[in-house]
Fold this sequence. Notes:
six-stranded mixed β-sheet, four-stranded antiparallel β-sheet
Amino acid sequence: MKNIFFWVVIAAVSFLPVSVGAFPPDNKTWTDCAKCHKLERPEAEKIVKKFVKGGRLIDIQSAPLKGFWMLEVERKGRRGGILVDFSKSFVVGQMAPIRPQERKVDFSRIPLSDAVVLGQKNAKRKVAVFTDPDCPFCRRLHKELKKIVAKRSDIAFYLMLFPLDIHKDAYKKAQAILCEKSLSLADDAFAGKSVPEPKCGNAAVERNKALAKSLDISGTPAIIKDQGVLISGYLEADELIEWIDGK
């Protein structure tokens, strides 16, 4: 995640004892792990207070590294992240991927009819974005997507609204946006503005959530280009264009 400052938490406690509960034995346990482990905001704030002097908790995210949460923290005007394992006994500072993780996905499995389109519908390149209106990195990414479609008419982004459980207001926002398939409502939501109550049921949101689970997507943003490649995380406009155009 370019331009995100990851500081040293506290050198002496950057690596606390690891509980075996943080490293389950098989893939099924990894998949189901998040269902059994919760990190509530008051508890996360205590962790930040203990390990990041003067830091303020911004958000709790599922980390790209399975078995961990990422706490987005602000200190002295700078933002960064620390990782906390599911057993809450292991804290990691100064950790950031060189570039977002990448893996193969069958793009044909994504029903674009459940998306809000940002860009021209007849654009040659189609990119699906699993995104949450209350996710800070998604909000930043939304601004970058708008920059791209302003100068590249051949790229369209299909916003797959995927509200995370840790964002209590995101579900209704996603529902309201999908009810009207409204880009203007999406723009308002990602800008932190209020959106009206949903005018329809929640079927589209539930389909998106089920789809994300089937694709093993547990966090946002997750970006999938039509060549069938997925990356997790935030990229700036120029980097994202380079990735989309690459093979």
